[in-house]
Amino acid sequence: QYNDAIEKFQLYIKASDPNPNILEAKKQIAEIYYSKLQDYDQSVKQYHYILKTETPSTPEATEFRFRISKALFFLKKFDLAIEELKELIVQYKNSHIEERALFEKAQ
Question: Which of 10, 32, 69, 106 gets the highest tally of CB atoms within 10 A of its CB?
Fold first, then answer.
């Protein structure tokens, strides 16, 4: 059923003119891969795709970066996971996001 949902979201994205719902469809695909299917390779690809095709300053961008780092951790790609967190630390120096990234990195 989740694969059917992904397919329908992908068809929607291809068939739709640019509109705010396309971003939501992309987020849903990433969420299904990450949370429901636990297909971390695909979730990393999808979150990177969102970050590249949408405004990187989208409010959820930091959460996407955290999810990418977690997925990389689950894939045992520890060095890449740490690099993602380091980028967040640099980008959000002296903020709650930096604190969260430092905490995640320490785990």
Answer: 69
Model-level pTM?
A: 0.84
Residue 96 Ramachandran class (φ > 0 left, ψ -120 to 50 alpha, else beta): alpha
The 10s digit of each residue's pLDDT in 47-71 is 999 988 876 666 788 888 889 999 9
Please classify residue 48 by burial: count the beta carbons closer than 10 Å to its beta carbon, then call 0-12 exposed, 13-18 middle and 19+ buried.
middle
> Which residues fall within 8 angstroms of residue 26, CB to CB, at 6 or more apart?
9, 13, 46, 49, 50, 53, 54
Is 29 exposed, middle or buried (CB count within 10 Å of its CB: 0-12, 13-18, 19+)?
Answer: buried
